[in-house]
Design goal:
CATH superfamily of the largest domain in chain A: MetI-like
Strand order of the largest sheet of chain B: 1-3-2
Number of strands of chain B: 3
Largest sheet of chain A: none
Largest interface: A-B, 44 and 39 residues
Number of domains of chain B: 2
Low-confidence stretches of chain B: none
Strand content of chain B: 5-15%
Number of strands of chain A: 0
Radius of gyration of chain B: 27 Å
Number of domains of chain A: 2
CATH topology of the largest domain in chain B: MetI-like fold
Oligomer: heterodimer
Helix content of chain A: over 70%
Chain lengths: ~325, ~350
């Protein structure tokens, strides 16, 4: 197991390195300079570019960049959005709110998904099952940003229940209230995924021989399901939780924009548009790192539970 | 037989009919309206008709989409002024109130078409956007382009995925190992990042979008195709064909593939809404196809900032995206069941 994990971590670092390199090259090949500002004179632009080594050849810049990262842990500074602030500081300030909405969504999705999945399995092929199946397909196929628009219009604007846009200057209570709709929009998809998975797993486990034994010994179907089948079904369902988190994180790229939340999500678009090169690369690395780490956790947890599985990967991402 | 099984299920029949309707509208919708998707519409005086409300004369009996608009906080003493409110444009005044300075204010419901001096008889069924472009034309043209991009992306995905998986599965051994490892490396890069980088590299555009949508999906198709080939390559009919001297290429495409298509078709049907989703997603983070060409994703994301004043501009593309995705999902579910049944019947 130790060797397996070491190998996987090695591969992970390699993947991140590949992404770093690809990201750097692509972003430096983009036409235009981060200092394309009509207020700057040509002389000023030249000076600024020289200061940030942007006038050198791309391979040379790449080597300087790598050297900075590996010898000093220096990832560069923001060029445009928050000039001269180290990029990780720019991102770091935005991580808490992003993680808050992501974890809250998962926290809400988990019990609701489990509840709905169990209910559907208990009443297989009766109306609760049909209703839940319908909702599941609806929730899986309607994208989170469409949900967000609908929530924003009907609950926020028409209903007046929650603030439409996040107000960073507002009080604690209003800020919390303005997180309700983004969290709801993000949790819709994971609820449906958890529910569908659990229903499938429970359905299979309910056919198992031990369920017949349990019922023969006098347990009601409901009790047998909750005490026995539910526990056995939980393990495979837990495996989709980690990939779901990556999924929610990708979704929040858009959801944060819709609700004006000052998280990491909006940074990608803004830094690309502003040609804030080092910031873009670092945001990409941030997302890639979370992705590969979650895949690693999933794979290791698979391996721990079932030693026969030593390969595979998270395939549930956006 | 597959089509018959599909037709018998209510959900997939509904989905198929809905898809046909949406497809038909995507094809014909733009031609039904006299306006182009990029022309900025103007009234007789050359003013741009920005944010016109929807007006569908045929729906008069329902009282909706009649081109009305509410102008909030207007001074009521101007109501008689025909240079501000052309004759017949004021329909109703709500929330009459008097300000501190003693002036009468209110919310004025107007016939926005008269208010903007639009010639009688001209109507924009879904209204116009901020730049005064007809939204009916743009919405259906956007649906057409989104569908086109999704279909082309899935076609590329299938073409590469099936052949790649076929090679891996049919030949097995080292070929299989190397091909699948390459696939794993590609899959370890998050899709959003791969798409972002590709679009940045190629520049925003329809071709870049199609490639971005197909860029990673084909690996999943390749996996599936490989699994199918592994399943079929040791069947009797393959051995028989081999004994008759059928070559590898012919074996893969003429003998095994037709048998292995079922799950691949289902997965392709599911990949279409996936591509539509991804296209809208990328539009939202600013990587969508460039203006003036519309897609459902760019329409939705552009309208987002006018949600409060122009909700229909958000709700219409949102509905089209949701309906497209829903019906493709139901269709795929139906296909899966139909293929499962067919397999059961054969084995």
């Amino acid at each position: 197991m130790g060797r397996y994990i070491a190998k996987r971590i090695g591969l992970m670092v390699l993947t991140l390195f590949v992404i770093l390199t690809l990201g750097f090259i692509v972003i430096r090949l983009m036409p235009g300079s981060p200092f394309d500002d009509p207020n700057y004179s040509a002389e000023m632009i030249r000076m600024l570019e020289e200061k940030h080594h942007l006038h050198e050849s791309i391979p040379r810049q790449y080597l300087t960049y790598l050297k900075g990262i590996f010898t000093e842990g220096y990832w560069g500074v923001s060029l445009n959005l928050e000039p001269m602030t180290p990029v990780w500081q720019v991102i770091g300030r935005r991580i808490p709110v992003t993680l808050t909405i992501n974890f809250l969504s998962l926290l809400i999705a988990l019990p609701l998904g489990l509840l709905a999945g169990t209910w559907a399995a208990l009443y297989r092929n009766q109306w609760p099952d049909h209703l839940i199946s319908l909702l599941t397909v609806l929730f899986i196929s309607v994208p989170s940003f469409v949900m967000a628009s609908l929530l924003q219009y009907f609950l926020g604007f028409k209903g007046g229940l929650f603030p439409l846009i996040y107000d960073p200057a507002g009080s604690e209570a209003t800020r919390l209230a303005s997180l309700v709709m983004p969290v709801l929009a993000l949790s819709v998809h994971p609820i449906a995924m958890i529910c569908r998975h659990l229903r499938g797993e429970l359905g299979e486990n309910m056919q198992a021989a031990y369920m017949i034994t349990a019922q023969a010994k006098g347990l009601s179907l409901r009790k047998a399901v909750l005490r026995h089948a539910f526990r056995n079904s939980l393990i495979p369902v837990m495996h989709i939780i980690v990939p779901l988190f990556t999924n929610i994180l990708a979704g929040s790229l858009v959801i944060e924009r819709i609700f004006g939340i000052p998280g990491v999500g909006g940074l990608l678009t803004r830094s690309i548009n502003a040609k804030d090169h080092w910031l873009t690369v670092t945001v990409l690395i941030f997302y890639a790192a979370i992705h590969v780490v979650t895949v690693l956790i999933t794979d290791i947890s698979y391996g721990l539970i079932d030693p026969r599985i030593r390969l595979g990967g998270g395939r549930h991402d956006t | 037989m597959i089509l018959k099984a599909l037709w018998q299920k209510k959900a997939s029949r509904g989905a198929a009919i809905l898809l046909l309707l949406l497809g038909l509208m995507a094809l014909l919708g733009p031609a039904l309206s006299p306006y182009s998707y990029k022309e900025q519409l103007k009234n007789g005086e050359g003013e741009i008709l920005s944010h016109m409300p929807p007006k569908i004369p045929a729906l008069r009996f329902l009282g909706i989409a009649q081109g009305r608009s509410t102008l909030t906080d207007r001074r009521l003493d101007y109501l008689e002024d025909e240079s501000r409110y052309p004759a017949g444009s004021v329909l109703e005044v709500q929330n009459r109130r008097v300000s501190e300075s003693g002036l009468a204010y209110g919310d004025v419901v107007v016939d926005y078409y008269r208010y903007m001096k639009v010639e009688e008889g001209r109507s924009f069924w879904f209204g116009t956007d901020q730049l005064g472009r007809d939204l009916w034309t743009r919405l259906w043209r956007g649906a057409r382009i989104s569908l086109l991009m999704a279909f082309l992306a899935v076609a590329i995905d299938l073409l590469i995925g099936i052949s790649y998986g076929a090679l891996a599965g049919y030949f097995g051994g080292k070929t299989d190992l190397i091909l699948m490892r390459i696939g794993e490396v590609i899959q370890s890069i998050p899709n959003v990042i791969l798409c972002t980088l590709l679009i940045l590299l190629m520049g925003r555009g329809i071709a870049a979008m199609i490639l971005a949508l197909a860029l990673r999906n084909w690996v999943e198709t390749a996996r599936l195709s490989r699994a199918q080939f592994l399943r079929y390559k040791n069947r009797e009919f393959v051995t028989a064909a081999q004994a008759l001297g059928v070559g590898d290429g012919r074996m893969i495409f003429r003998h095994i593939l037709p048998n292995a298509m079922g799950p691949l078709i289902t997965s392709a049907t599911l990949a279409v809404p996936g591509a539509i989703f991804m296209e809208s997603f990328l539009s939202f983070i600013g990587l969508g196809i460039p203006a003036p060409e519309p897609s459902v994703g760019t329409l939705l994301s552009d309208a987002q900032s006018f949600l409060q004043t122009q909700p229909h501009q958000v709700l219409l593309p949102a509905a089209v995206i949701a309906l497209l995705m829903l019906s493709f999902h139901f269709l795929a579910n139906g296909l899966r069941d139909a293929f499962d049944k067919k397999e059961e019947a054969e084995s």
